[in-house]
Amino acid sequence: MDGHALPVVETEQTEEHASVDDLLLWVLVWSELAALGILLTGFLVVGVIQADAFAAARSHLNPLLAGINTLVLLTSGWQAALAARPVASTAARRRALMLAALFGVAFVVIKLFEYSTEVDVAGLPQFGAFFELYFLITGFHLLHVAFGSAVLLLVAWRPSPGNIALITTLWHVIDLVWIVMFPLVYLV
Amino acid sequence: MTHHNARRLHNTWAVLVAIVLSGMVMMTFWGGTAAVTVTLLFLAVVKCRLVALDFMGLRQAPVGLRFGLLAWPIILALLALAKLAMGAVPSA
Lengths: 188, 92
Prior knowledge:
Radius of gyration of chain B: 16 Å
Helix content of chain B: over 70%
Number of strands of chain A: 0
Membrane topology (chain B): Multi-pass membrane protein
CATH superfamily of chain A: Cytochrome c oxidase, subunit III, four-helix bundle
Transmembrane segments (chain B): 12-30, 67-89
Helix content of chain A: over 70%
Largest interface: A-B, 43 and 45 residues
Distance between the termini of chain B: 52 Å
Number of helices of chain B: 3
Shape of chain A: elongated
Oligomer: heterodimer
Keywords (chain B): Cell membrane, Membrane, Transmembrane, Transmembrane helix
Strand content of chain A: under 5%
CATH architecture of chain A: Up-down Bundle
Pfam families (chain B): COX4_pro (PF03626)
Largest sheet of chain B: none
Radius of gyration of chain A: 19 Å
InterPro entries (chain B): Cyt_c_oxidase_su4_prok (IPR005171)
Number of domains of chain A: 1
CATH class of chain A: Mainly Alpha
Number of strands of chain B: 0
Number of helices of chain A: 6
Distance between the termini of chain A: 56 Å
């Protein structure tokens, strides 16, 4: 190391440089989707078995906050997509990655506030296993958002094409999971 | 993966926001009905499609990758519809 900053993304990077269609990335993507898919399927199955308890528990959730969080996460995903464009300048990539992380943090704050309004009723026996599964599934997703936001900031600091492609692809997967999780947990 | 230009991404984001806001209006005024829940499940799949094809840049990706990723929300939405249908059938 000569003490100079590491090279960062240049505007002339080609599409091939930013390509992320390698096997490991998609194995990671599908492992995430499989894990969350199994959890959400389990939630639906228990919801059939404990239909009345789930319906009663669901009335204590706040779909409006969840809707706002959907907007927040989609806006974050939009910024992540802007950062992944090969033609974007390094400054534009950094700005977009930091905004994506900022919206990720906003999602975490809103979700934690929502939790604070639900935790008092979470232990009541009439709600069956609803809140255990609710906190497990949404908490698992929330940890992904929190960790992903930190990685977005890290990559904004050192924006190499490979790292940008990796974290933005995973970030969009986290987005996809929330989009599906919202109606399944709050409405169905 | 083919990343779109900024204008295309701005347009996709605007469409996604419009879909979410329309869903929130439906939930506020007609929430709890099966019709709204089915509509919101359909809109969730549409949102996933837009995120995968435009934000992830998979519009020109291999068919298997594209449809594989879109199969995930579709399968879960179908399972949710099955649960709704089971709830609609009166128990003996």
